[in-house]
């Protein structure tokens, strides 16, 4: 195990911010462990995520992959979501471990989504991306990199290339179901 990661089963925080440093989503998660793709975090049904002015309650269990090395995205996968949401990839900047109990990243608006219905796989929030690129002044090289990465991730999700395949993510969803979490987690 990496000395800079919590023990599996530990409740920790994932904190997103916007490009200007303003706070965005904050979620309590369970550290599940690591594999060849990176570190996996989980949220159980009923756990909350908050951002200024809004709170969201997880309707189903979900796991999030923080890829190894420099990460410009976070992959979240849901089990049995009522609106057929399976995969939600947040395109990001500087997703990293700030300490063993905190992952941070800059939310960069674009998302790759896979629904298990007629909507299928698509890129979401292009309008927000365009608006925020002007408001926050995203550098051209950052925009080019993330636009290219978005299309690559969309293709990998469509082809269910690991770690975007059901076998990989279902094993982590099963692990989330099995892990013991202290009652003092606040959830």
3D structure, described in words:
The chain has 187 residues and is an alpha+beta fold. It has a single domain (11-173), classed as Beta Barrel (FomD barrel-like fold). The protein contains three helices and ten strands, in the order ββββββββββααα. The two termini are 26 Å apart. The relative contact order is 0.18. The mean pLDDT is 94.
Kindly report the CATH topology: FomD barrel-like fold
| Strand count | 10
Strand content: 35-45%
Low-confidence stretches: none
Q: What portion of residues is helical?
A: 10-25%
* Structure class: alpha+beta
Biggest sheet: strands side by side, in what order? 1-2-3-6-7-8-9
Radius of gyration: 16 Å
CATH class: Mainly Beta
- Major sheet summary line: 7 strands, mixed, barrel
CATH H-tier superfamily:
FomD-like
- Just name the CATH architecture: Beta Barrel
Tell me, briefly, the overall form: globular
Count of runs of 4 or more consecutive helical residues: 3
Mean pLDDT: 94
Order of helices and strands: EEEEEEEEEEHHH
Rounded to the nearest angstrom, the distance between the terminal CA atoms is 26 Å
């Amino acid at each position: 195990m990496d000395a800079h990661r919590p023990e599996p089963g530990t409740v920790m925080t994932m904190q997103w911010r916007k490009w200007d440093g303003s706070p965005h989503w904050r979620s309590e998660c369970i550290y599940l462990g690591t594999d060849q793709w990176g570190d996996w975090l989980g949220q159980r049904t009923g756990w909350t995520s908050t951002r200024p002015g809004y709170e969201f309650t997880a309707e189903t269990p979900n796991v999030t992959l923080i890829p190894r090395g420099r990460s410009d995205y976070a992959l979240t996968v849901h089990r049995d979501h009522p609106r057929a949401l399976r995969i939600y990839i947040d395109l990001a900047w500087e997703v990293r471990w700030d300490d063993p109990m905190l992952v941070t990243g800059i939310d960069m608006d674009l998302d790759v989504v896979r629904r298990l219905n007629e909507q299928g796989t698509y890129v979401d929030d292009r309008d927000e991306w365009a608006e925020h690129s002007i408001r926050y002044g995203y550098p051209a090289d950052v925009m080019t990199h993330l636009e290219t990465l978005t299309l690559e991730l969309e293709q990998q999700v469509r082809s269910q290339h690991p770690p975007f395949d059901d076998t990989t993510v279902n094993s982590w969803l099963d692990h989330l179901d099995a892990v013991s979490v202290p009652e003092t987690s606040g959830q």
